[in-house]
Amino acid sequence: MSDYDDTYTESQVIMTAVKIIAPFTLTYGLFMTFHGGDAPGGGFQGGTIVGVTVLMLAFAFGIEPTRQWLKNSVLTGLVAGGVVIFGAIGLGMIALGGDFLEFTMLKEVFHIKPKWGLEAVEIAGISLIVSGVIISLFFTMAAGFSPERPSGTGGISSADNAAEGPDSPVAEVGDDD
């Protein structure tokens, strides 16, 4: 059992500050994502800023309410959708007769700038993957680690260890008796 209270405590100062700051950080994250092909930035940096904006909201308004608002299926959809888009664009270049992510095929076939292929990968693929992974990792770490195991998985849990006392023999993890 831990010696500290880790429950959420509302702070009007933090909540007000986040209400003011969050729209700006979200806008800046989107700017970095959409403007990244022509200037410093891109899908990774913009996706990180968008993901951290959600983390900031979770710190201000509570992790569990934010987790309920942003369901796991949405986060899975962001990451999976980004991977599918990234792969589809790369395979599309193969279908046009080039190599994976060879954007010069866009100029040869559709007479458009190859830069638009890179923009599509950064905006629709990488930014979704990065923001979804950052938010998912945060929620996973916020849920904590529980060393207890369901019965039948072998080994003993730390709760079983404490109940038996310090002098009792400890079974090896994965030992099925």
From TrEMBL:
Residues 14-135 form the Na+/H+ antiporter MnhB subunit-related protein domain. GO terms for cellular component: plasma membrane. This is Monovalent cation/H+ antiporter subunit B. Residues 149-177 are annotated as: Disordered. It comes from Natrinema versiforme JCM 10478. PANTHER family: NA(+)/H(+) ANTIPORTER SUBUNIT B, NA(+)_H(+) ANTIPORTER SUBUNIT B. The lineage of its organism: Archaea, Methanobacteriati, Methanobacteriota, Stenosarchaea group, Halobacteria. It is a multi-pass membrane protein. InterPro entries: CPA3_antiporter_subunitB, MnhB.
